[in-house]
Design a protein that fits this description.
This protein is α/β, with parallel strands linked by helices and about 280 residues long. It has helices at about 45-50, 80-95, 110-120, 140-155, 175-180, 190-205, 230-235, 260-270; strands at about 5-10, 15-20, 30-35, 55-60, 100-105, 125-130, 160, 190, 215-220, 240-245.
């Protein structure tokens, strides 16, 4: 299904591109928050499966990503990402006032979703994160972290390559090739956004206690980008309803890996438990 495009303007007048995949007979709606450097149209196959099972899906290209405006790989402050999530949820609730709303974030999007749950305690049904950025496999050096914090104040829009290796995304060569050849994918991250994301990851890694909604946390055991141990340790510290699923041998994008059908089916089956 192609989905319906829509948009909105941020407070600083950036055009935000968004997409709405409508189920024929919607029983629920899922709001998607994508990962670093990518965009929502890489999730068309996920939306198709959700739609077939009565789940509509909405998502937006974050500022600085995909077809949304803004310097590539940059955000003035982390709260701007949370504001985008808030707008997306409000749009979903306006379209679907009488069905459950779920929140789903991958990688950097998983980081944003977890921080949104911690900070905002939203009125939604449940949330899913896959490969969330809590810890990185290749952690930046203390010197680079300090440099980024200083540069965030002086020249936050100075950028560098994110050094993401496309071959670490999936065991499916086609997925990796499609990523590398996708004109809407970029490899840039500014020092300002990098510093924001490291602080946001630290916030999750230090959190313990209760979330306001049930959480499904999933990670590939062979992820070479974000560390599955960060997800496992986070789940252990939660005192609320959490389901942890580690996919043996899975790479970073488990929804694009050779196990993608099982992963996406698992997500739908898990959400079915929380439809009441």
């Amino acid at each position: 299904m192609l989905g319906q495009e829509f948009s909105w303007k941020t407070k600083d007048q950036l055009h935000i591109y968004a997409k709405h995949w409508k189920a024929a007979k919607p029983r629920a709606a899922v709001c998607l928050v994508h990962g670093l450097g990518e965009h929502v149209n890489r999730y068309n196959h996920v939306a198709d499966y959700f739609n077939e099972h009565g789940f509509s899906m909405l998502g937006n290209d974050r500022r600085g990503h995909g077809q949304s405006e803004g310097p590539r790989g940059h955000v003035p402050k982390f709260e701007d990402f949370l504001t985008e999530v808030e707008h997306l949820l409000a749009t979903a609730k306006a379209h679907y006032p009488n069905v459950p709303i779920f929140l789903y974030g991958h990688s950097m999007g998983g980081n944003i979703v977890l921080n949104y749950l911690i900070e905002k305690r939203p009125d939604i049904q449940a949330a899913i994160v896959t490969g969330p950025w809590i810890r990185l496999i290749a952690s930046p050096s203390p010197l680079l972290v300090q440099t980024a914090k200083v540069m965030k104040r002086i020249a936050p829009k100075v950028g560098k390559a994110n050094e993401l290796n496309a071959k670490h995304l999936s065991r499916d060569p086609k997925c990796c090739a499609d990523y590398e050849n996708d004109p809407l994918v970029h490899a840039r991250v500014t020092l300002g956004m990098g510093a924001c994301m490291l602080d946001a990851a630290k916030n999750i890694d230090q959190f313990s206690g209760e979330l306001s909604v049930p959480l499904l946390a999933m990670h590939g055991s062979a992820d070479q980008i974000t560390d599955p141990n960060g997800t496992m340790d986070f789940a252990k510290r939660l005192t609320s309803d959490v389901t942890l699923e580690i996919w043996e041998g899975g790479y970073h994008e488990i929804h694009n890996d050779i196990i993608k059908e099982e992963v996406i089916t698992y997500m739908v089956d898990w959400m079915e438990q929380y439809m009441q």
